[in-house]
Design goal:
CATH architecture: Sandwich
CATH class: Mainly Beta
Number of strands: 9
Distance between the termini: 45 Å
Number of helices: 2
């Protein structure tokens, strides 16, 4: 059961991620490096739900990732980047400049190319997310 008390302080979504339950409840969990370096079982439990998180990107990604458990929303709050999708052995870029939203369908491999430091908000289901190096 989750507390339905109001949040009296702002939440820093880069350090406190929120899980969105189908019941309408919101669960706050420790985010940032703590989340990404936690045991896989912890990530998999959180990955069953919609994860709302905030990230800063300053460099191009060195890998691609793919979410088999659900689509992803990437909302660019500031900066400039391309979200590069690998579809049918070819690449397609979603160009995000200053702000905008990219939606990535489940099962699609993608990476990010950064043109200026980016501040993004992500909504995804991280369960069983796959990573592979860019070749």
């Amino acid at each position: 059961m989750f507390s339905h008390e109001p949040t009296l302080e702002p939440i820093d979504l880069s350090q406190t991620y929120t899980l969105l339950h189908s019941t309408g409840d919101i669960e706050k969990i420790q985010g940032g490096d703590h989340f990404w370096h936690a045991p896989r079982a912890h990530q998999d439990r959180a990955g069953q739900l919609w994860l709302l998180s905030e990230h800063q990107y300053e460099l191009d990604w060195e890998d691609q990732k793919m979410h088999p458990a659900g689509d992803e929303v990437i909302y660019l709050l500031s900066g400039s980047m391309d979200v590069i999708l690998s579809v049918n052995k070819s690449s397609t870029a979603i160009k995000l400049r200053t702000s905008g939203v990219a939606t990535i369908a489940r099962g699609i491999w993608y990476t990010v190319k950064v043109y200026s430091p980016c501040h993004v908000l992500n909504i995804s289901r991280e369960f069983n997310t796959k990573h592979k190096k860019i070749v």
